[in-house]
Amino acid sequence: MGEVELSCRAYVKMYLHACLFPRCSINGLLLSSSSAGGAVCVTDCVPLLHSHLSLAPITQLALTQVDVWCSQTQQRIVGYYQANACVLDSSPTPCALKIADKIAEQFDNAVLLMLDGSKMSPDYRVPPIVMYERKDSRWMLKDKHTIMLRQWEETRAIASQMLESGDHTLLVDFDSHLDDITKDWTNQKLNTKIAELASPANGNI
């Protein structure tokens, strides 16, 4: 597999999801609206759960709904992200591997991204992510030099700014949507806010 590029929007939403539920394991899906060959461009993400990550029926329901929405919006599911409740543990759990395997059945270059809770401080100078790729039916650590987060300084600043101003409370994951179906799990409000903040950063949303 070639390079993986993470957009500002995708990273900021993952970061805010983890910050909104700091004592929970959280997970979500990575999306791409690009059909570029070779590189995988993660342009957005859908936050899924913050409780009972291993509950198969809810995960299946979420995957199905996100898949339908993606087909309507010219996007596709290209990966999976997770942050473990224990900040010192950034290893993929059996649940993470199982969902990532399912995504890999549909998309050959699927990625598995773990957020490293021990490096989530706004002051940390490099993206707090650990990425895996599937090789010979196993998930292997991906060479960090093939992971790109353009405009990292700006992206980090936007994530910190949104956290400080309480904008992380705008984030809706699929769990919250199931509790109140009027809540929008596609997070259009949050996307707009990120886009407004990112526009000076060369429009990298």
TrEMBL record:
Component of the ER membrane protein complex (EMC). EMC8 and EMC9 are mutually exclusive subunits of the EMC complex. It comes from Seriola lalandi dorsalis. One of its GO terms (cellular component) is EMC complex. Residues 4-138 form the MPN domain. CDD domains: MPN_UPF0172. This is ER membrane protein complex subunit 9. InterPro entries: EMC8/9, MPN. It comes from the Eukaryota. Belongs to the EMC8/EMC9 family. It holds the Pfam family UPF0172.
